[in-house]
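Appendix B. Raw example, untouched.
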Amino acid sequence: MNIIRDIDAARKLLSRRPRWDVVETPVSLQEGLRTIFGEGVGLEQAVDRIISDVRARGDAALLDYTRRIDQASLTNLEVHREEIAAASSRIDGELLSALKLAAGRVRAFHEAQRRQSWMDFSHGALGQIVRPLERVGVYAPGGTACYPSTVLMTAIPARVAGVDQIVLATPPKADGSIAPALLAAANVAGVDRVFKLGGAQAVAALAFGTQSVPKVDKICGPGNIFVTLAKKKVFGVVAIDGLHGPTETLIIADDSANPAFCAADLLAQAEHDVLASAILVATSAELAGKVKAEVELQLMRLERRDLAARALDTNGQIIVVANMDTALELANLYAPEHLCLLVREPWSLVGRIRHAGGIFMGEKSLEALGDYVAGPSHVMPTGGTARFSSPLSVNDFIKIISLVAVDETALKDIGPAAVAIARAEGLTAHARAVEMRLKPPPKSPRSRGD
């Protein structure tokens, strides 16, 4: 990992953000795209083609892309309900207990977020009606990986919100199966239906519906670049929770921090993905040097050391600053997904933090706990979007309906203002509609014979 002492260089580094309107195709993907789509097809074009094909051919396109991309030949896209229910008996009992413990904590955290409809009956009625979404699609990465925690972190907030139907899409293994741990998590979380679908084709199916896959109202959950681009393209047809880029952690540490803990937390972040960002901002040059040495030492003992090493080489940084003011300035500039405070008095800093997906307080509140069992959803804003967005929550799965019931007194109080504004905007029909209620026209004379 590099050690940076130039603050201007650090500011420049931490202000860089992904641009979803300009997406270059990584060299590692170019050969695969060429094999599937032919020469000259980049990521954007491939995703466009997949979405169009799924809209046109439905299940046939889904089966085709699952065979060509995931190397899985399927005859049925949906996992039978009996297989989901039986998955709990196919995993280790300790893991099942862990999933249930995590589910309980996630559920309890999100139940505290429930919102209620409200009404003010002062003059007529004004209020908001809270309604859950009817059907939601959640995406969990799968195939060569298995993330049951993502199922819990997306499906449980939806279930707490009262969503009628939760549909899970996850890519199958080459043999066409879904990992039992993932299915067990789906059962624990209360998922209604599971489909063996990954990538852009899963997003397209959830957005537009096919013969087998129901159309949903919102798509949530992290995925690879194909999933992210597809979510961006279908937004407006359905809602999405956000565009999730590579995961990121920024640690602020002072001279009281344990170098081994700092290194362990950086490596826990780096092992996610070769594009993961693991950044330490230290107010002590001595600590920075010790952490660098610890990272090199601990890295050699990791099973995923090659992947973690590539992530650290690409996006791992140690930044030395003169004081905590500068550390907080850099943290707010970066707006990290995870902000970890390994300092003497973490509570003294909370009020000065403007932008973060989640704040992890002290060495015992490590971010790895947040990934699994702490309680908040681990689906958090990345790429600087914590400046304007929030972690996945119950609020993502409800909608608000405004209710207006104006009585005579209120009409007289507010009607003239509505007329004035409408006429200023040149919308005379609006103004007249109000005026007719304020001054009802005289009744027409009755015709003879009435």
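End of appendix B.
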